[in-house]
Specification:
four-stranded mixed beta sheet; 4 strands; alpha+beta
Length: 218
């Protein structure tokens, strides 16, 4: 097992991608230094650590940077493997967990962004797509308490802080279309690692409003 010494996370408070890394580190009991970043004035450390994408989060372990949130979570799971496994041990189940985490990124996060950015028919299209995506995830969850293994839960749960913004900006109620997903999110919030990490939904909404002004899409 690698030493916990020298673990740093380049972070941004409201980022669901950074929150994935924070939840994984908390589940593993890893002590680390959190360095909050500015997305408008990117630090030399961030640009040096992630010269390709120039984005947070970046996990720096003993001076070595690891980028991209799902890769970071997998790295954390492999390095601190003696506690709270996040990925299943079975190769097929592990592949399935990666598939659904990728689905969350490519379908749910992307569609959620369009819910609060778009208006009119484009927003209506996003609503229909989000309904379909959540229904697919709800079917995958089934009658289980969690998605299994922990990896998909860690990937998905930070986005639940944005559900209030979907409702307020687009009149899209996750609870109305996928009540099991809301119940799952409530169960996740019972874990200390999640409760201490996720942003207050109303603060997320304030951030969204400010971001819309910056982007000129009010």
């Amino acid at each position: 097992m690698a030493s916990e010494k020298g673990v740093m996370l380049l972070d941004f408070w409201v980022s669901p991608f950074s929150q994935r890394a924070r939840i994984a580190l908390a589940e593993k009991g890893v002590e680390y230094e959190n360095k909050e970043q500015s997305l408008l004035d990117k630090s030399e450390l961030l640009l040096k650590s992630n010269p390709v994408h120039k984005k947070i989060p970046v996990l720096i372990h003993d001076g070595k940077p690891v980028c991209e949130s799902l890769i970071i979570v997998q790295y954390i799971d492999e390095v601190w493997s003696d506690k709270a496994p996040l990925l299943p041990s079975d190769p097929y189940q592990r592949a399935q967990a990666r598939f659904w985490a990728d689905f969350v990124d490519k379908k749910v996060f992307e569609c959620g962004g369009r819910l609060w950015k778009q208006k009119g028919e484009e927003q209506e299209v996003a609503k229909r797509e989000m309904t379909e995506n959540l229904e697919i995830l709800e079917a995958q969850l089934g009658d289980n308490m969690y998605f299994g293994g922990g990896f998909v839960d860690v990937a998905f749960v930070p986005l639940t802080s944005w559900f209030y913004s979907y409702k307020t900006c687009a009149n899209f109620s996750v609870e109305a279309v996928a009540p099991k997903i809301v119940q799952w999110a409530q169960r996740c919030m019972e874990r200390e690692s999640v409760a201490k990490t996720l942003s207050d939904p109303k603060k997320v909404y304030d951030f969204v409003c400010n971001l819309k002004k910056i982007l000129g899409i009010e």
